[in-house]
User: What shape does this take?
Amino acid sequence: MTRISVVVPVKDDARELEHCLEALTRQTRPAHEIIVVDNDSADDSSEVAARYGAIVVTELRKGIWAAASSGFDTASGDILARCDADSRPGTDWLERIGAALDARPEAVAVTGPGRFYDLSTPMRVLADVFYMRAYFWLTRGALANHPLFGSNFAIRASVWNDVKGDVHRHDPEVHDDFDLSYHLDPACTVLVDRDIVVGISARPFSDRAAMLLRTRRAVHTVAVHGLRGQPVFRWRRRLLRTRGPQARPLAVSGARAAEADRPGVA
Assistant: This one.
């Protein structure tokens, strides 16, 4: 059976981390390991993680991407699953992830939606339509592939090893999941399974400033990938590789994908 490592970045969120780790200890398919990456917390997040038997990694560089990537680097599993400290994965989360990737060996990753557990039912429905579904639809147009959703995805360790040197892990202004999605080849298979659901908090959307910050970071994430990261070039690469005589649905960084588009490069 493939081994699934779970990576949870945290900063000053010990109480929510307790709920997350409690859910992870009740999985119908136990994790190979749970890695909590403490991003220089001032609270007792590390102590909470240790109490639940998690491997604790300290990452002093600022940002979720710095923390998450350190966790991926530390993990020893075949599949690297990712959620947030305030996530509430269902008991079958890892079982569904493993089943999805085992059934589709060509897939490099699997992702699913989040469901806001702290919103009323009407607001939850609106958030699903206008935020969650909109995110998957709009970013697919930009990426020429399905995007990963940061609170609920899993990627093969071999794929992470292929792209980890190219992601913008040291830039605290990029969205980690969006950046990682950019570094997957447009022609590779990314699964979206709406039955793989994780409860998520609506706290990041609690005020206008937080929403503006997320929007600014989304624009910045697009910008750092330059011209070759623009949709027209990504869709061109996807069409050429899925329909051409040398179709290569690989997981490869955006820089190397652009290099492969040059004439004479195999």
User: Anything to note?
Assistant: The two ends are 35 Å apart (CA to CA). The longest strand covers residues 4-10.
